[in-house]
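Re: that chain you flagged

S.,

Sorry for the slow reply, it's been a week of failed gels. I finally had a moment to sit down with the sequence you sent. For the record, here it is as I used it:
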Amino acid sequence: MNPIPYGKQYIDKQDEDAVLEALRSDFMTQGPQIAKFERDFAEKVGAKYAVAVSNGTAALHLSLMALGIKPGDKVITTPITFVASANCILYCGAEVVFCDIDAETFTLDLEKLKDILEASPKGTYKAVIPVDFAGYPCDTEMLSHLSAEFGFKIVEDACHAPGGNFLDSKGNTQMCGNGIYSDLTVFSFHPVKHIACGEGGMITTNNLSLYQKLLDLRTHGITKDPTILEENHGGWYYEMRDLGYNYRLTDMQAALGITQLAKLDSSVAKRNIIAQKYDAEFAEANIVTPIRSSIIMHAFHLYVIQIKDRLGLYNHLRKNNIFTQVHYIPVHLQPYYKEKGWKKGDFPIAESYYEKCLSLPMYPTLTEKEQYFVINEILSFYNK
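Prediction finished late last night. Pasting the structure tokens below so you have them in one place:
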């Protein structure tokens, strides 16, 4: 059996042709493909605006900058995420505050979040960054009620969840990134994600002011908009209005993003079929599988099981050319964050989850033969 990774991009001839066409055009960056990708993406998730950037980390950083997060501010996020969800807070000079996760969904525990908010004066926390972990949408509707009560902004980290959605309390389908309950939503286009651009990210919002701010910040804080220039010396003239960054996407990446986006629905559907097979095969085994809900469309970026003797299983699968992964080591237990005072025992649910979690191969081109090879090796390990 050939090596089976935990995640893998799929590039077809349509993708290749789109990139070649962009390469042969007059634009390699800041060209028409970027604007089209933004329009297509905003339409897909149901948001008014979308801003393409260089990667998901840049999207997080720019989102907090657009909200005006600054030194002295406090921002809450989850310890079960990639470090970027917390690092972006530090990039702004603000303080990271962690909140433990829900034991079933692995997303931010909103009851524990409410406890944190109630323990301090209103306005203490400027923003909350929930993570749609593994592709399972967090309850942004409930989070929006807390936002209104306690006065914080919501930056939804949906890097795992393009195509994910949930039914709100009124029975309406809410797509991750549509901006109904979040101020800003960020996505990633890393190769193992649903939409693979090599690197890349997107920010969606329904707020015109934030959208305009993001456009400036991704390009050094520079604008050429004649309606807001202090002076205008001619067509070449530009002004730097803020300290921004070079967080632009290239036209080749955007061209690839457009064709990849067109396959999003089929990708999510195939991921759910793969998840259902895993669910069925592990139903009788002592393996905890991801929570399912009739009102949630899980995007299944990851399929995470919880098991005993994870290291033993990890090594067994690796010997058989099956390459699983752990998502994630709790951020507060990273050496950098421990130096800031966090320690083991601070977030028991996150730490318990980490001790047992393992991400199995999950990608649309995983064949039935490959998947059953994975399943059989897992079951044989526990039945030996």
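What I noticed first: The longest strand covers residues 49-53.

Talk soon,
D.
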